[in-house]
Amino acid sequence: MDTQNSLIYVTGNALKFRVAEQALRGSGIVLEQASLQTPEIQSEQVEEIARWSAVWASQQLGQPVVVMDAGFYIQALNGFPGPFIKFVNQWFSAKDYLNLMQGKPDRRVSIRDCLAYCQHGQQPISFCQLHYGHLATEAGCSDGSPIDQLFIPDGFSLPISEISPQEMLTYWSSAAVWQKLKAHLENKVG
C-alpha cells in the first residue's frame, strides 16, 4: 500500500469510521481503522486533547493518523460537560442530565468537533467546527449514550438516538472538518 495515500483513523466506533470513509470518498485516500486507546489528557480545550492524542497515536503506529475529539457544551450548565462528555456519560444517565436541566428554559447545546491529523514525527494539524442543537425534554427510547438520547441537532426534531443511522452518517460526513482535512490531504499529494 502507498503510505503517502494511506491514513489511519484511530477510533473504535464503527459509525465514526463509516462517516470518515464517506467524507473521504473519491479523494484517493486509503482509510484504515485502528482501535487504539489513546491516553486522554485533561484539558478544557477539545483541540488540545485531539492534537495530543494524534501525536501520541502517530508515535505508536509510526504512520499518519487522524483523531476526532468532541465537547458538548450545555449553555444553561455553563458549558458542562464540555470535553469531559465521554467520562460524564459513564456516570450520568439521560435522566441525570434532565434533572440538572429542571427549571432551566435555555436548552441550547453546542458541540465542538476537532479533527487532528498527524504524520509521524511532525506537528499535528487540526480542524475544528461547531454544531448546534438543543436538549430534548425527555430521553429517546433507543440505545445510545445518555447525550445521544437527548441531543437534537439543528434541522432535526428528534434526539440522535432516534435518527436513522443513514441520516446521521450523512449529517456527520458532510461536516466541514472532514472537508478541510480532505482538501489538506489532496493538496499534500497533488
Estimated radius of gyration: 17 Å
Low-confidence regions: none
Number of domains: 1
Helix/strand/pairing category: alpha/beta
Q: Rough shape?
A: globular
Q: In this structure, how is the largest beta sheet organized?
A: 7 strands, mixed
Name of the CATH architecture: Alpha-Beta Complex
The number of strands is 7
Distance between the termini: 18 Å
By CATH reckoning, the class would read Alpha Beta
Helix percent band:
25-40%
Give the H and E element order.
EHEHEEHHEEEHH
CATH topology: Maf protein
- Strand coverage percent: 15-25%
Number of helices: 6
Mean pLDDT score = 91
Topology (SSEs and partners):
Layout: E1 6-10, H1 14-24, E2 30-34, H2 46-61, E3 65-74, E4 81-82, H3 85-91, H4 94-100, E5 108-118, E6 125-135, E7 151-153, H5 165-173, H6 176-189
Parallel strand pairs: 1-2, 1-3
Antiparallel strand pairs: 3-4, 3-5, 5-6, 6-7
Helix pairs in contact: 1-5
